[in-house]
Design a protein that fits this description.
With 628 residues, the chain is an alpha+beta fold. The chain is built from 20 helices and 23 strands. It has a nine-stranded mixed β-sheet, with helices on one face. Strands 16-15-18-17-20-19 form a six-stranded mixed β-sheet, with helices on both faces. A five-stranded mixed β-sheet has the order 10-11-14-12-13, sandwiched between helices. Helix 4 packs antiparallel against helix 5 and helix 16 (499-513) crosses helix 18 (571-582). It binds adenosine-5'-diphosphate (ADP) and magnesium ion.
């Protein structure tokens, strides 16, 4: 068969263009990436051989061999892993198969103009196989898939096209030949290669050899990192391993390494990243913990060992006590897996607790990145709810910082029964809510819930330490019983209209507004605004309803009418009350103003007005003529 020429996907072309011009100062990472691929290829074959042992016939010893051809300036990386057939080649080396690389390219598209930043990002993401073009003017991949007879040679200079032709390879596996550019010849020096492997790939469980003459020198420790004892592992080694398993290139925020012995033995080496991975809020909620059984890689779709709300975890879990025959399809229902899972959850939550207790500042970084995800556990995992609640942090009316529920309860005012909350889309707009006024005036703290997940867990959790959560936009405010900062129940009505006059006004407003509202009442929660809307006790919270509507989740019959609360101390209200009194209840003249008042409350909720033309007309009339 003759040589066939293909074009790279447009995005790969863009990527290669940047990679080739990269001035990134750690170009040596190309070797880490190629070794990492070689090791993955061995892992995948080892797994495939569990069910098809023939695949490793004549060679179950996996190894990676590095060879330098000084004369031709070629560094080659050979493995006896799973290899690739022709389809695999076109699917993987010509497209962007890898999610991390895809994220890199997406970022490029966003700030395509900022060259400096693009180049810096290569280091941050790593671009897998394509990083070879940072140092090479040509790359060849000679590969033969386990079980196949045919071998294939892929070749490219990284400039838009690649070729594939049939070739020969004595055994299964892949050899990547990196034709180094003149100015990158340092990478054929054995001292340099040795050093790079030690620094970046020591944790690889497959032995890596360097061929020198007819001798082969082993460069790495070649025992999987997680099987070594903690005291032997340096921080840098953990970090390198984290880069390898996670495809992230930040530092781990937390490393959790345990060898658990007992009825069920397993090892976990888990990491929490220090920055937010790009796919955190994808609807697939993909997990990124790899499951190994007796050091054989089984799956990286770790559903079953890690719950969705801990999907920020990266790393591996390896158990001696699971069967190697465990299939990817059935392992979720294995009782041993369930046991490991609950052990891991307890461990992770426990470590988070320690970190939160030790350093509020560092914990804040975690919380800002992953708090919204962890809170999903509050309604998905009732069994661990009590461990998750104390880990939660909130913005509140107290100030700019974050508070825990325990801190909130400790600061509750005398007579205060509930943990007050208010939800909304963003902190700035929540802080402006009129419903908060009375609470602020009395110094009662309110938690500001700005994550959409809050609308789910609050109703299902209901309470903390026997204190119910209560939305300030729902139900009555009961502020009268709570003592303010001076310790006295607030009862100063000096600027208010008389109760009787307010009652008369409310009666008049009810006539004017009819079934637009569920009820109208005098408010305890307003001090500055004239009006606000709240939901009735048993109804859907007003902010929750809004969120559901935005996400098209509001079902027929769920929406309910609101209660209009009026502030008896506000000049607008006192003026209207006086008008009703003067006209001894003749309410006709009040109609326009009542409708304006209602629309004002809707606007304050960030809602739209049904009939904007009528609104404009009324406003003009009231300005012109006043009430009446
Ligand atoms: P990633 O390793 O994150 O998937 P890469 O860009 O490093 O991304 O590699 C792309 C793909 O090319 C791999 O997923 C794999 O399918 C294939 N590949 C690369 N190197 C090898 C190899 N040595 N053996 C088998 N497949 C390989
Ligand atoms: Mg890779």
């Amino acid at each position: 068969m003759s040589k066939e020429t293909y074009s790279f996907e447009t995005e790969v072309g863009k990527l290669l263009d940047i990679v080739a011009r990269s001035l990134y100062s750690h170009k040596e990472i190309f070797l880490r990436e190629l070794i990492s691929n070689a090791s993955d290829a061995c892992d995948r074959l080892r797994y495939a051989a569990l069910t098809t042992p023939d695949l490793i016939e004549g060679g179950g010893e996996f190894k990676i061999l590095l060879e330098a051809d000084t004369e031709k300036r070629i560094l080659s990386i050979a493995d006896n892993g799973i290899g690739m057939n022709k389809d695999d080649l076109t699917e993987t080396l010509g497209t962007i198969a890898r999610s991390g690389t895809q994220a890199f390219v997406d970022q490029l598209a966003q700030d395509g103009s900022d060259e400096e930043k693009n180049l810096a990002m290569i280091g941050q993401f790593g671009v897998g196989f394509y990083s070879a073009f940072m140092v090479a003017d040509k790359v060849e991949v000679l590969t033969r898939k386990a079980g196949d007879e045919k071998a294939w040679l892929w070749s490219s200079d990284g400039k838009g096209e690649y070729t594939i032709e049939e070739s020969e390879r004595g055994e299964r596996g892949t050899t990547v030949k990196v034709f180094l550019r003149e100015d990158e010849k340092e990478f054929i020096e054995s001292e340099r290669v040795r050093h790079i492997v030690k620094a970046h790939s020591d944790h690889i469980g497959i032995p890596i050899y360097l061929a020198e003459g007819d001798k082969e020198e082993k460069l790495n420790t070649a025992s999987a990192l997680w099987t070594r004892s903690k005291s032997e592992i340096k921080d840098e080694q953990y970090t390198e391993f984290y880069h390898h398993v996670s495809h992230n290139f930040d530092d781990p925020w937390l490393t959790i390494h345990n060898q658990v012995e007992g009825v069920l033995s397993y090892t976990n080496l888990l990491f929490i990243p220090s920055s937010r991975p790009f796919d955190l809020f994808n609807p697939e909620r993909k997990l990124h913990v790899k499951l190994y059984v007796k050091r054989v890689f089984i799956t990286d779709d770790s559903e079953g060992i890690i719950p969705g709300y801990l999907r920020f975890l990266r790393g591996v879990v390896d158990s001696e006590d699971l069967s190697l025959n465990i299939s990817r399809e059935t392992f979720q229902h294995d009782p041993k897996i369930t046991k490991i899972r609950s052990g891991l959850i307890k461990r992770v939550l426990g470590e988070l607790k320690k970190k939160a207790d030790k350093s509020a500042d560092e914990y804040k970084t975690f919380w800002e990145n992953f708090g919204a995800v962890l809170k999903e556990g509050l309604y998905e995992d009732a069994a661990n709810r009590d461990a998750i609640l104390p880990l939660c942090r909130f913005h509140s009316t107290r100030g700019e910082g974050l508070v825990s529920l325990d801190e909130y309860i400790a600061a509750m005012k005398e007579g205060q029964e509930a943990i007050y909350t208010i939800s909304g889309e963003n902190l700035e707009s929540i802080r402006q809510s009129p419903q908060l006024e009375g609470f602020k005036a009395k110094g009662i703290e309110v938690l500001l819930l700005d994550d959409s997940v809050d609308d789910f867990w609050v109703p299902s959790v209901g309470q903390y330490q026997e204190k119910p959560f209560k939305s300030v936009t729902q139900g009555g405010a009961d502020l009268a019983n709570i003592k303010d900062a001076e310790g006295k129940p607030k009862d100063d009505k000096k600027d208010q209209a008389d109760d009787a006059d307010v009652d008369a006004l409310i009666a008049a407003l009810k006539v004017a507004l009819g079934d637009k509202v569920k009820d109208i009442r005098s408010s305890q929660r307003l001090t500055e605004s004239a009006v606000c809307l709240v939901a009735d006790e048993g109804d859907l919270d007003i902010r929750l309803e809004k969120m559901l509507r935005q996400h098209n989740q509001l079902q027929e019959g769920m929406a309910s009418k609101r209660i209009l609360e009026i502030n008896p101390a506000h000049p607008t209200i006192t003026r209207m009350a006086a008008f009703v009194k003067e006209n001894s209840g003749a309410v006709d003249g009040l109609n326009e103003a009542a409708l304006l008042l209602f629309d004002q409350a809707r606007l304050l909720e960030g809602e739209t007005i049904d009939d904007t033309a009528a609104f404009a007309r009324r406003l003009s009339r009231v300005i012109e003529k006043g009430l009446g």
